[in-house]
Structures are given as C-alpha cells and as structure tokens.
From TrEMBL:
This is TetR/AcrR family transcriptional regulator. Keywords: DNA-binding. Residues 1-61 form the HTH tetR-type domain. PROSITE patterns: HTH_TETR_1 (PS01081), HTH_TETR_2 (PS50977). It comes from Clostridium thailandense. One of its GO terms (molecular function) is DNA binding. Pfam families: TetR_N. Residues 24-43 bind DNA.
C-alpha cells in the first residue's frame, strides 16, 4: 500500500471516530505512519483530503456495483440484484458507509467533488427509468425513488449490524417491503 492509500485509510478511520474538527492532519499522518510532509504532498489541505476520500469512497462503491451487475430478464430482478449488491457493499464496508453518511452533506466537501464522485452513476437512473417506462414501478420523480431505495438499503444495513441471524431471510423480507412501496399496482 502506498503512502497516499495509507493516508486515506487512516483518515477514514479517524474522521468517523473523531469527526472533522477532532481529526488533525498530524494525527492522520501519525496513524498512517507517514510524515506531515508526505500528507501535504498528496493533499493540499484537510478539506482536499476529505474531498478525495469522499470521491474514492464513491468510486469504490461504483466499481463494486458495476462488477456485480448481472442482467436479468425482468426489471424487478435487476432492481433486486442491485438492492442486494448495495446492501452487501454496505455490510462489507461499514466504515466507508459511515463516512459517506457523515460527510455526504458536509460543507467540507465542495460541490465539484460531489459532482465528480457522482459521475458515471447513470446506470442507476437507467435501471429505474426502464422500470417506470414499462410501468413496473410507479411513475414518480427518479430522485424520490432513488432516495427511497438508498434509505431502504441503509435501514437494512443498520438492522443487519445487530441482527445477523437469518440474514438471507431478512434480506428477502426487507426487499419485498421496499418493493411494495414502489410497485405499480
């Protein structure tokens, strides 16, 4: 692992544990086992570091999802597979998810970084738009559906942290609950 990755990993742990103001660059450098100079070689400011960490988190999430996308015959099956992939990423990357939830609306991450981090997520819009076009799900604003989807994923991940028994059964039930909220009846 190179020094930049060490810094990003240390920053992730410290930001979720101690917050933005409680985490100094000196503390990040020490945790990463690098000098302050090495940290500032890669990141101009703490704000730059947190923005880059935000972008990296979203890029890792997108790569995970795209690597696991399998085309199914129905929109429901495609959306379910996507939902399951999102849940599994959340469970496998709890620190990243916690960081994302803490800082996705933070003033320390500039709008340009937020736009860069959201680049190439059009496949999500396309997935839901196809289901709307074929009248499988209700025809509402895509952002409303996506926010409902994300809340469902996060809600289940929070539940699963403390309730790991019957995970597969609970995954099925949780998806069915969310699906019923958007299906076109």
């Amino acid at each position: 692992m190179d020094s930049k990755d060490k810094i990003l990993n240390a920053a992730l742990k410290l930001f979720i544990k101690e917050g933005f103001h409680g985490t100094s660059t000196a503390k990040i450098a020490k945790e990463a086992g690098v000098s302050n100079g090495a940290l500032f070689h890669h990141f101009k400011t703490k704000e730059d570091l947190i923005s880059k960490l935000y972008i990296k988190t979203k890029e890792d999430y997108k790569s995970y999802l795209l690597d696991r996308m399998v085309s199914h015959k129905t929109s429901k099956s495609n959306i379910k597979q996507f939902w399951l992939n999102c849940v599994h990423w959340s469970l496998e990357n709890m620190d990243c998810m916690t960081f994302y939830l803490m800082f996705s609306n933070s003033p320390y991450i500039d709008n340009l970084s937020k736009k860069e981090a959201s680049r190439n997520f059009d496949f999500i819009l396309e997935l839901f738009q196809e289901a709307i076009d074929t009248e499988i799900i209700i025809n509402v604003n895509l952002n409303l559906i996506i926010n409902s989807f994300a809340a469902s994923v996060q809600s289940f991940a929070n539940f699963a942290k403390d309730n790991s028994d019957n995970l597969e059964e609970n995954l099925e039930v949780a998806f069915r609950m969310w699906w019923r909220s958007i299906v076109n009846m």
